[in-house]
Amino acid sequence: MKFEDKVKIYHKIFKFCFTISLVAFLTLYLSQATGYYEYEQHKTATFTSEQIKQFEKDVAEGKNIDMKKYLENSNKDYSNRMSDLGYELSSGVGNIVKSGIEGIFGALNKMVEE
């Protein structure tokens, strides 16, 4: 392979990585600039204050109070077979990479000690 061909390939790879990085940066910047995160936090705070008001109202009326009613977990579980498979796959790859890095540093450590 000619040197010019290698330069073209490296240039394409760099251009692709730069484009992906730029898109990720712009996405994060725009979500911060438009206040999306603050809006999500505001919705959570509003929901919490509504729960407090309902709790105080029920206490004033002398109703039977069950804390689970006021502390409902609104987080939904979106796991399915594909997400479980993806998690297992990423865990496996992570373990392989970890063992590889540990092996490399172990070998380097032995070289340095000798």
List the topology elements.
Blueprint: H1 3-33, H2 36-61, H3 67-70, H4 81-113
Task: Describe the structure in brief.
By secondary structure, the protein is an all-alpha fold. Helix content is 82%, strand content 0%. It is built from 4 helices and no strands.
If you had to describe this structure to a student in words, what would you say it looks like?
By secondary structure, this protein is mostly helical. The chain has a domain at 80-114. Helices cover 82% and strands 0% of the residues. The longest helix has 33 residues, at 81-113.
Tally of contiguous helical segments: 4
Which range best describes the helical content: under 10%, 10-25%, 25-40%, 40-55%, 55-70% or over 70%?
over 70%
Strand content: under 5%
Broad structural category: mainly alpha
H and E string:
HHHH
Radius of gyration: 26 Å
How many strand segments?
0
Report, as a whole number of angstroms, the end-to-end distance.
39 Å
Q: What's the average pLDDT?
A: 83
> Can you summarize the main beta sheet?
none
Poorly predicted residue ranges: none
Fill in the keyword field for this structure.
mainly alpha, elongated, about 80% helix, 4 helices, DUF3679 domain-containing protein, about 110 residues
